[in-house]
Amino acid sequence: MYDVLIQQMRNEVTRLGAQELRTPEEVDAVLPHAKGSLLVVVNSTCGCAAGAARPALTKALQHTNVPDKIVTVFAGQDREATARAREYFTDQPPSSPSFALMKDGELIHMIHRYQIEGRTADQVAAILKQAFDKHFVPVGKQSA
After folding, report:
1. Active site residue: 21, 30, 48, 53, which one?
2. How many separate domains does the chain show?
3. Bridge partner residues of 69 (DSSP)
4. Is residue 128 annotated as a catalytic residue, yes or no?
5. Rounded to whole angstroms, how far apart are CA atoms 112 and 33?
6. Would residue 141 count as lying in a domain?
7. Which of 6, 16, 46, 108 is catalytic?
8. Residue pLDDT, tens place only, 62-106
9. Which structural domain, as residue segments, surrounds residue 121?
10. Residues 56, 61, 62, 67: what is their CA dihedral angle, to the nearest 10 degrees?
11. How far apart are CA 53 and CA 65, in angstroms?
12. Residue 142 falls within a domain, yes or no?
């Protein structure tokens, strides 16, 4: 039963188009080499992931300005992949759930658990959309 629940939590993110990174090698193949904007979703089994983070991601991705690519690691499940992803989040404490915004392979912004916990999905979606607008060039506005 637990495996079914974990798979549902994974599916909630991957059905939005996120590429799941389950090994350190998969993380290394994507994070440092990603061109453009990248959102890394650090998924989790906790209540704030279910109640706010994953639903907020769904809402935020309906915004006009979204990242070029989305990937996800699952804290507590794919431990080595999550640990490797966190190595790219320079000077940031481990946090799950969380969202890391990267541009051209470099961390540019982090949304930690403390910014998610105790908030509604709409509030967290607003935080994500503000970060997208601040750090990412809107689709169709990139220079040629």
Report:
1. 48
2. 1
3. 38
4. no
5. 23
6. no
7. 46
8. 999 999 999 999 999 999 999 999 999 999 999 999 999 999 999
9. 2-135
10. 150
11. 18
12. no
48 included as an active-site residue: yes
* Residue 42 φ/ψ, nearest 5 degrees: -95, 100
Closest CA to 53 of 15, 13, 22, 92: 13
Please report whether residue 68 resides in a domain.
yes
CATH of the domain at 41: 3.40.30.10
Confidence check: pLDDT of 39 > 90: yes
Q: Which amino acid is at 93?
A: P
Q: What is the 3-state secondary structure of the chain?
A: CHHHHHHHHHHHHHCCCCEECCCHHHHHHHHHHCCCEEEEEEECCCHHHHHHHHHHHHHHCCCCCCCCEEEEEECCCCHHHHHHHHHCCCCCCCCCCEEEEEECCEEEEEECHHHCCCCCHHHHHHHHHHHHHHHCCCCCCCCC
Q: Which residues of 74-86 are buried (b: 16+ CB within 10 A; e: fewer)?
A: bbeebeebbebbb
Lowest mean pLDDT among 8-17, 19-28, 91-100, 134-143: 134-143
Residue type, 28: D
The answer to whether residue 144 is domain-embedded is no
